[in-house]
């Protein structure tokens, strides 16, 4: 209880980017990532331009560079593989600082690293400027399967409830002198996880009962219509359109 | 012996000969008969396992298939009128975390009416009005899990009020509430202009709010009468495992106001 009133990725603000309707931002981010991914890896300058484009968005969204860079750390486990590629890939070798590296491996690593980083940066910007609730409305508006949106919205609603339940179970365990140390105690933790699953499952049944009592018949009624004007769409799509121009240049040159 | 009813007054709820056994063979109800007149506030008392929850789930047709009938404002509960019945019978479940499943209070209160097809300004107005009735209008944009338990219970009542029900059914409304929240909820319930059926073990609360009480025990209505008289009948109380809190004597409490008798 009393946790933050928004998710941790979100950065409260009233910038022009914050103000855009969520579905335009979602569409823009998605298109931007598609364009970035389809850029030839040899056009290294293009990725530099993409980074500048994102920096411009971040500036307008008043998201500080430090915040963005810290959030980028989330990709570290995913790009670890990319670092290995120059060492293990086949093909022509080049020598850098006494290390023998594969040339195609280097290109592959660069490809993953550059595209991955730009994609994550775009997502971080989206998350920093859009509340979770709005994201869901945006997804709904973009006609994502309603069941998926419902599942996501229940995750948001019940995440805290279940975390709280988990915390109470941990306190109950510890109050009776239990402390998880080593493999021998995993059994207890596994049983707690099982109990938590059953409790959550039963809560699901009770929630469903409450829903049908209020007239639920399989689909969520639309309560908030989100709409976007032509101007808002063009502002949001400025990013992927600029990126597309860069991408086409990258292929042409 | 419905104390304040006359046969001519319209019934919000009529249950007759209701019997029900679960698929595993456990029989929970053995022929339940009672009638609640429009505007009445009635307490349904009974020990654990008396079949109270089973009865409640029959009122809006979630359970069914046994014998007997349930009629809400003249409409029989059954497949044909299910949507209307669920609008007319507003059930407030015991755990508000089960009842409030939407990301914000406002959307949760809007859920029922929106499912029934209400839109736009009319929907906004309905939500605002329901939240005002329970004094939670300032919390419309908050997520339910950031409210106190008492506030969540009040929002749960609002979610049901927003559907403009014929009868409000409350399952253990006072459970887990501190005394101040208890009193606030009582004030709200007293101010509402709907029929109320309140399922509870909390006998002082029943006496405070409901002029009439039913005792459900072992699947039948064992007693029906003015709440004060039932609670003062020590033999009846003992026979049905109903116990008053220590030091509480219903005979010394002023009877509840019969404002709509």
From TrEMBL, chain A:
Signal peptide: none annotated. InterPro entries: ABC/ECF_trnsptr_transmembrane, ECF_CbiQ, ECF_transporter_component. Pfam families: CbiQ. CDD domains: EcfT. Its main location: membrane. The chain crosses the membrane at residues 43-60, 72-89, 109-130, 233-252. It is a multi-pass membrane protein. The keyword Transmembrane helix applies. The keyword Transmembrane helix applies. Keywords: Cell membrane, Membrane, Transmembrane, Transmembrane helix. It is found in: Cell membrane. NCBIfam families: ECF_T_CbiQ. This is Cobalt ECF transporter T component CbiQ. It comes from Streptomyces pyxinicus.
TrEMBL record, chain B:
It is found in: Cell membrane. This is ABC transporter ATP-binding protein. Keywords: ATP-binding, Cell membrane, Membrane, Nucleotide-binding, Translocase, Transport. It is a peripheral membrane protein. Residues 13-243 form the ABC transporter domain. Belongs to the ABC transporter superfamily. Probably part of an ABC transporter complex. Responsible for energy coupling to the transport system. SUPFAM superfamilies: P-loop containing nucleoside triphosphate hydrolases. InterPro entries: AAA+_ATPase (IPR003593), ABC_transporter-like_ATP-bd (IPR003439), ABC_transporter-like_CS (IPR017871), ABC_transpr_CbiO/EcfA_su (IPR015856), Co_trans_ATP-bd (IPR005876), ECF_ABC_transporter_ATP-bd (IPR050095), P-loop_NTPase (IPR027417). One of its GO terms (molecular function) is ATP binding. It holds the Pfam family ABC_tran. SMART domains: AAA. It comes from Streptomyces pyxinicus. The keyword Phosphoprotein does not apply. The keyword Secreted does not apply.
